[in-house]
Amino acid sequence: MDENADCEDRSGETLDDTFDLRERLSRAWRAVFDNAVEAGSPPAAVVETMTAVAHARFAELFGTSAAASYLALLAEQMRDVDHGEAETLIRGEPPGPAPFEAAEEIAAMDPAWIDRDPL
Q: Less CB within 10 Å around the terminal CB: N or C of the chain?
């Protein structure tokens, strides 16, 4: 990903979108999650609510078609993770760390995905 990448939302505003920004935002979302769980909210309910709110806002900013495409892209990435884990088990290798477990290993999504042709 380009260190100085820009992303344009539906309003036409250009947003500074860098790896550092994505890292800060990821830490902020994790802090919100951790605080809600520590306050007694069930983790699954927190994740589902955060996902629903984020998806609704994404649709407002980029349109419902882009939001649906984004969900499809995320689902495809998770299937790839599942396939990779299955191949590792078939080869008899020990499993690696859980996907998205370590903050350092989370790759920011390519902001240019929205400009690609739909599937």
A: C
| Side chain identity, residue 103 | A
**How many whole angstroms separate alpha carbon 31 and alpha carbon 25?**
10
Alpha carbon distance 71, 55 (integer Å): 9
DSSP-H helix ranges across the chain: 19-38, 43-62, 64-90
pLDDT digits (tens, 9 = 90+) for 21-54: 888 899 999 999 999 999 999 999 999 999 999 9
Residue 54 forms beta bridges with which residues?
Answer: none
Q: CA angle, corner 70, sides to 62 and 98, nearest 5?
A: 140
Supply the pTM of this predicted model. 0.56
Residues 6 or more apart whose CB falls under 8 angstroms from that of 42 comprise none
Pick from 34, 74, 14, 86: nearest CA to 4 = 14
